[in-house]
Every structure is written in C-alpha cells, then in structure tokens.
UniProtKB/TrEMBL annotation:
Keywords: Disulfide bond, Secreted. InterPro entries: CNF-like_PLA2_Inhibitor, LY6_UPA_recep-like, PLipase_A2_inh_N, Snake_toxin-like_sf. Its main location: secreted. It holds the Pfam family UPAR_LY6. The lineage of its organism: Eukaryota, Metazoa, Chordata, Craniata, Vertebrata. It comes from Cervus hanglu yarkandensis. It is found in: Secreted. This is Phospholipase A2 inhibitor and Ly6/PLAUR domain-containing protein-like. Residues 2-66 form the Phospholipase A2 inhibitor N-terminal domain. GO terms for molecular function: phospholipase inhibitor activity. GO terms for cellular component: extracellular region. Belongs to the CNF-like-inhibitor family. The keyword Hydrolase does not apply. Residues 80-140 form the UPAR/Ly6 domain. The keyword Disulfide bond applies.
Length: 167
C-alpha cells in the first residue's frame, strides 16, 4: 500500500478506455489525490466514430479503500439522436469543426476542450461528451492511447438533435 502525501486525503481507482482508429487500449490507475481533484463517476468524450475515450473513477477516504476491484466500465455506444461539431488539432488552442459526430450513450453535451499532450505541446478538441466531461477541472488527466492529456480548459453546451443544425 502506498503512503499518501499529507495534502492527499483521498484514494482513487480509475479504469480508462481509449478507442483510436480501430485500436482499443484499456488502462487503470490507483493512487492518492486530493478530494477536490477526484471526480467520481463516468466520463466520456467522443470526437469521431473511431476516436473516443471514457473513464470510470471511484474516490474514497479511508486507508486502503481503493484495493477493491476497479470500477465497472460500462460504455454505451448506442447513438442517442444528438450530435455535435467535431475536430482535433495538435499544437493549437482551437480547432475548426470539419464534421459532426453522433453522440452515444450518456453524451448529451457538445464539449470544447484544450490542454497539453506533453509539456509545451498543446491540443484542442471538440465533440460529444457526458456532463462529467464538462466539469473537468484544469489539470485533469484524460486518457489518449498510451498517454494522458492534461486538461487546461473545457466548455460545454447542450447537444442539438441529429435532425437539427449543429452550431
């Protein structure tokens, strides 16, 4: 069992799933954090039919409480009738949507996200996301293949119906 730093009052356990152009990567993490940085529940972000990520996180506040099996990962890939503009750009803080993505499962928000892939290497993304994706705080780690992206800023709006026009 890992000893937590004095400011870390919370144990966390998370499982992550990333889909990128036919490849699926599942990873997990258990460790210490602060209660303000632990966001329990399910997060999903989708910027294309073959480009999506999800995370299920559990937070607890007693010694060794994250030793149980990892949270169940239940990503629903059924289209829900909503859609959002989508794009992804490296080395930029904005991206211009070139297509629309159909939202799936609990994704009911259009999410705009910026951050870092590595120190000094920026990214920008737009697509469908869950309400939890909208509340990603600066510094939140989001899985992307074998690495984690560090969120700098997120903003959201409701997803329009697939029969409507996306903004």
């Amino acid at each position: 069992m890992q000893a937590c730093a004095p400011e870390e009052d919370t144990c966390m356990a998370a499982i992550y799933e990333t889909h990128r152009v036919g490849d699926v990567l599942v990873s997990s993490k258990k460790g210490c954090t602060t209660s303000s940085d632990c966001d329990p529940g399910f997060l999903s972000f989708n910027d294309g039919p073959e480009s999506n990520v999800g995370a299920a996180t559990r937070c607890c506040q007693s010694n060794g409480c994250n030793q149980d099996p990892l949270p169940a990962f239940r990503r629903n890939l059924t289209e829900n009738g909503l859609r959002c503009p989508s794009c992804f750009a490296f080395l930029k803080e904005t991206c211009t949507p070139t297509q629309e993505v159909l939202c799936v499962g609990e994704e009911t928000r259009c999410v705009t996200m910026t951050g870092l892939m590595h120190p000094g290497i920026r990214f920008a993304a737009r697509g469908c996301g869950t309400e939890a994706a909208c509340h990603s705080k600066p510094g939140t780690l989001v899985p992307s293949g074998a690495r984690f992206l560090t969120i700098k800023k997120t903003s959201c709006r409701p997803s329009p119906q697939a029969s409507g026009k996306a903004e």
